[in-house]
Specification:
CATH architecture of the largest domain: Sandwich
Distance between the termini: 50 Å
Strand content: 15-25%
Shape: globular
CATH class of the largest domain: Mainly Beta
CATH superfamily of the largest domain: Jelly Rolls
Largest sheet: 4 strands, antiparallel
Strand order of the largest sheet: 2-6-4-5
Helix content: 40-55%
Number of helices: 8
Order of helices and strands: HHEEEEEEEHHHEHHEEH
């Protein structure tokens, strides 16, 4: 179905993607009108793929709700997880005619689905919106570069500490309690470690009194200062 840009959930998603004041930009209202006519709101069920590697890269997506995991498989069958995406994040951008990774929903949710050629055409007519869009994609690139630095410079358990602090900010919005929607295996594949190492890392951080764990998924950061110190040591 087409999208209703007056819905709070849609507004929140677009504001996260383009910036909270993007509606004040020149051409924003016309941009939203075109988006409402041509974009679609799509429901995605848990564990279903939005797209897979080698699918034609005809669309980009902006999550409205739910959690999406980006993953890539090797020819030998191993898997690497390289991003967890939430409301307002962007996925599906590709310079190639096909996607070089897969996107799978970790929970039930909805996304805005936009034809890639359409949005490129719209951006040509609304340069202020296009500029803001590219600024935010640069933020994503900087975030990925930060993650690569952490992966290359930190120990396995330090990487896990960084991950929990990041999730506290992105899921818990700065609160000490949050629910991890991804499995231990997903986390291990994201952080470049074995499942056993990830499990030992959670146990170690718990034993040190930095976190508490309920049902493997509910996390409470008990000593944020100590967790920061450990992650950055």
């Amino acid at each position: 179905m087409t999208i209703d840009t007056s819905k709070v959930s849609i507004k929140t998603s677009l504001a996260s993607c383009f910036g909270r004041n993007f509606q004040e930009l020149e051409g924003a209202n016309s941009f939203l009108e075109e988006l409402s006519k041509h974009a679609q709101e799509i429901h995605i069920n848990e564990n279903c793929y939005i797209f897979k590697e080698k699918d034609p890269s005809d669309f980009i997506y902006i999550p409205i709700s739910g959690v999406i995991m980006l993953e890539r498989s090797t020819s030998k069958g191993s898997r690497h997880v390289f991003a967890f995406l939430f409301t307002g994040n962007l996925l599906g951008l590709s310079e190639f005619s096909f996607y070089t990774f897969s996107a799978r929903a970790l929970s039930n949710g909805t996304v805005v689905k936009i034809n890639k050629q359409l949005i490129q055409s719209i951006f040509e007519r609304y340069p202020a919106i296009a500029k803001r869009f590219h600024e935010f994609t640069n933020h994503v690139l900087n975030y990925i570069l930060d993650q690569l630095f952490i992966m290359g410079q930190k120990s396995a358990h330090q990487r896990l500490a960084h991950f929990l602090l990041d999730m506290s900010n992105r899921i818990g919005h700065g609160t000490s309690k949050f629910y991890l929607p991804m499995s231990r295996q997903d986390i291990a594949d994201y952080l470049g470690m074995s499942l056993e190492t990830a499990s030992r890392g959670f146990s170690s951080l718990k034993k040190k009194g930095m976190i508490s764990i309920q049902n493997n998924y509910r996390i409470t950061i008990l000593d944020e200062e100590a967790l920061h110190h450990f992650a950055d040591d």
